[in-house]
Amino acid sequence: MLHKILAIATAGEVETANPDAPITRDPIFTADDIGIPQVDADDNTVRNVLSYVFAAAGAISALMVIIGGIRYIISTGNPQQTSSAKGTIIYAIIGLIISLAAFALVNFIFNAVGSSPTAESSKHLAAWL
Predict the structure, then answer these.
(1) Helix or strand holding residue 5 (H, E)
(2) Between 11 and 93, residue with greater pLDDT
(3) Which DSSP state fits 22?
(4) Do 27 and 48 share a structural domain?
(5) Same domain, 47 and 89
């Protein structure tokens, strides 16, 4: 059944004598036909890009904690401003925890599929802390 669905989806002609045989027809569209850029990236490249993304998220979270602290100091006892500053600090800390958890999860997945950890990703984690 799946073999027939694949044959219809690719508009290919399939011999029914061997339903387990792969469909050998060229794809209808290639990446070049529809303008998708081709990137030669290995797992270390992907890991390094994600490390930079997580490092940026961690830096933004740390900056927001600082901004929240400054807002708390200059609130001068105003309950609305104090509450807003506390909210900023709390949400920035939650964002930092989520960023660290995402970083750990991505590293776990890369290690589970056989990619070795790089010094570059560890350096970014150390910069967060």
Answers:
(1) helix 2-9
(2) 93
(3) P
(4) no
(5) yes
Q: Specify whether 70 is located in the same domain as 104.
A: yes
Question: Is the pLDDT reported for residue 93 higher than 60?
Answer: yes
Q: Which of 60, 58, 66, 72 has the alpha carbon at shortest distance from 103?
A: 58
Is 90 exceeded by the pLDDT of residue 28?
Answer: no
How far apart CA 8 and CA 30 sit, in angstroms, is: 18
Distance CA 117, CA 88 (A): 33
From residue 98, alpha-carbon distances to 43, 77, 95, 115, 121 in Å are: 23, 31, 5, 23, 17
Mean pLDDT of 86-105: 91
pTM greater than 0.85 (yes/no): no
Domain count, the chain: 2
Angle at 97 between CA 77 and CA 63, to 5 degrees: 50
Residue 3 near residue 19, CB atoms below 8 Å: yes
* Same domain (yes/no): 101, 57: yes
Q: Please return the burial class of 126, using the count of CB atoms within 10 Å of its CB with bins 0-12, 13-18 and 19+.
A: exposed
